[in-house]
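Weekly structure sync, notes
Attendees: PL (lead), two postdocs, one rotation student
Agenda item 3: pending single-chain targets
PL asked that the sequence for the first pending target be pasted directly into the notes so everyone works from the same version. It is reproduced below exactly as submitted, 596 residues in total.
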Amino acid sequence: MATGSEHEPVRYVGGVSIDPTPHEGRLRPAIGVASYQTCRANRTHPERAEGYGWTYNHAPMLCWWKGSFYQEYLSNPVDEHIAPGHTLMLTSPDGRQWSRPQVVFPAYEPPPGTPMPEGYQGYMMHQRMGYYVAPNDRLLVLGFYGHARDPFGPGGIGRVVREVYRDGTLGPIYFICYASHGQWHEGNTSYPLYTRSPDGGFVQACEALLADRLMRFQWYDEDHGRAGFHPLQEAGQALCWYHRRDGKVVALWKWSLCAISGDEGKTFSTPVKAPTLTMDGAKIWGQRTPDGRYALVYNPTVHSEHRYPLAIVTGDDGIIFDHLLLVQGEVPPRRFFGRCKDFGSQYVRGIEEGNGTPPGEAMWITYSMNKEDMWVSRIPVPVRGRVEGPVADDFDRLETGGHVPDWNIYSPLWAPVGIVHFPSVGKTLELRDQDPYDYARAVRVFPEGTRADISFRLHAAQCDRGMLEIEVMDRYGNRPVRLCFADDGLIKATAGSALVVLQPYRPDTWYKLDLTIEASPFGHFGVSIDGRQVLREAALAEGVLSVERLSFRTGPYRDQPRRETENQQPHDPLPGADEPAPLATYHVREVRASTG
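Predicted structure, written out during the meeting:
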């Protein structure tokens, strides 16, 4: 079995795998990944979300066109594949600030008198492909209408398309392809065929898409009954494809299936299971990265209902991949129960070849969290899991609201993280939090060492609410050093198994903290605040052999859900999930870290 051949198109050669217990899988983070929530579901206050209050949101798609990101996702009121369903779209100039979602394909209303199939349960929206930037530079957005609960095979009606204009408005909806499993045509469907459009450029763009074998191969799941339309009669689910360095096309599907094509998608080898890719029913994403290398992003677990963590492997040729690193390891509480709402960051997609290249040395991906909220992540390239040299970050030279080099950012809409200007001080890293069930987090990786000296300045805008947990961690995510600016106005630390009070703190006051850590099974640490030693040779909270990262988090460490948590156990909406909590704000500056 030759690696790179049709018998094994891709291979992961690294010896690293995940520990399924912690959310982050005990993986090292890919340095500098910034993750931003784009839409937060809200049932009781739809005006704070997408205007409908629907809480099943999933299957996002992403492209870059004319200086903006476009994100598409599907949505149902409560449950997966339960009607009604529609598709929404939102935009962003920078990946951090996003517009309010707008409906791009509404819930389907059949023409009066249309006969309903046996077992009819309504219509739903589905999509395995989102965008297409045509050769004539027209942007098309697409979706698929089907019968609930199964949009595939005989349940499908057809694929719809409309144009996204440069001013952000949308053209009329047309069918670009009726499903082959039924007798669908203009007479019994709600939208005309694309050929009816009076816009010749739009028609030309649609025909270019229909002629693009690789793009339309993504339609296979929803309709594979038309003879000769797809290069394979038997293929996998949720196709992703890329060109590897030798020019061949790699096809990737769920369940670790893959194949290759040497003729630009006219034919593909028989799909085979890549034995080194640990996957289940979540999607995988592969692409060539802006630095000319390759990356695969997927959930490296066989626990299909618990899709975490989201990880990345990289390689030079699109065949051999190594260095399994963390992209997203946060799993916030699922606020709303729903059918098949699996836990974690899942159904990852990036920007397909031909669908735009954002500026900057980074790749962008999108995914849903708990099939509830929408997210994107910016992954800097080259992808790396270590840093070299001491850390000295004061943030003054960074752009307000811009990216934060070498920091791993987790930024929900109600708990944002970013660079701001602080009067009389300069630029700071700000963590704000008014999310009752999530938190803001910022992590700085430093060179791994058995001894570490760490310092930073910290400002809390309040002392009677909120909390900021500060941790020094090892490569596996163990947390030997734990400090907390608590909501009772006290700075606390964990010394061994005891929680000790270091001193009170005041709001709107800057404090300088210095930490010294000796890492070993019986290691210890010390803390000084504003030059005064407040803790000396305290026992570590857990034994480690080294340390390598500093974490700031506006909420407690979480280990729920666990792998044994049943995702189909009904529960009421979490109390107060749709209401912002009282705001707590923290600023960090002058972060220093050196190791020995």
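Discussion points:
- The longest strand covers residues 584-595.
- The chain has a mean pLDDT of 96.
Action: rotation student to compare against the earlier draft before next sync.
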